[in-house]
Write a structure and sequence with these properties.
This protein is mainly alpha-helical and about 140 residues long. It is built from 5 helices and 4 strands, in the order αβαβββααα. A two-stranded parallel sheet has the order 1-2. This is Ribonuclease H protein.
Length: about 140
């Protein structure tokens, strides 16, 4: 949910959560929940809202594996994707795979990892170049 950092917004969102919980019979796990603030919000306001809500605050996090950041992404923000592609490639015995087998693995596994993770945000050219280099090297082995 997105809302302005005001006490009124906290009350409205709490009301929405209470309604959801009463209708669904579920409870919100505050230990697993957090509030993500824009970097322009003052620390005192962040603390006041977090205390009123009972949630933790977090500067940066991931949602479904996608970094939630309020700045221009850098290569380090996507290192986990590069490492995931590298890990998949290293687990396969490329020398025992035919060319068609390598193409199949690239199309079904490696590109799906990249497409899901990178379709949600702008990624710098050097991240894409690194992933393409790993795939190219695996293909040419």
């Amino acid at each position: 949910m997105f809302a302005p950092a005001t006490c009124r917004a906290v009350k409205i969102i709490n009301s929405i959560f209470d309604t959801y919980c009463s209708w669904s019979g579920q409870k919100i796990n505050k230990a697993k929940s957090f509030i993500y603030f824009n970097k322009k919000i003052k620390k005192s306001r962040k603390c006041m809202i977090a205390n009123k809500w009972g949630f933790r605050t977090q500067a940066e996090s991931k949602y479904l594996g996608i970094p939630l950041i309020s700045r221009k992404p850098v290569k380090a923000d996507f290192q986990h994707i590069i490492d995931l592609v590298r890990g998949k490639i290293s687990s396969w015995e490329s020398k025992s795979l035919s060319l068609a087998g390598r193409v199949t693995l690239i199309n079904s596994v490696l590109t799906s990892i990249s497409i899901f993770s990178l379709s949600h945000t702008f990624v710098s050219d050097n991240v894409m170049a690194e992933i393409k280099k790993l795939i190219r090297h695996f293909f040419m082995e």
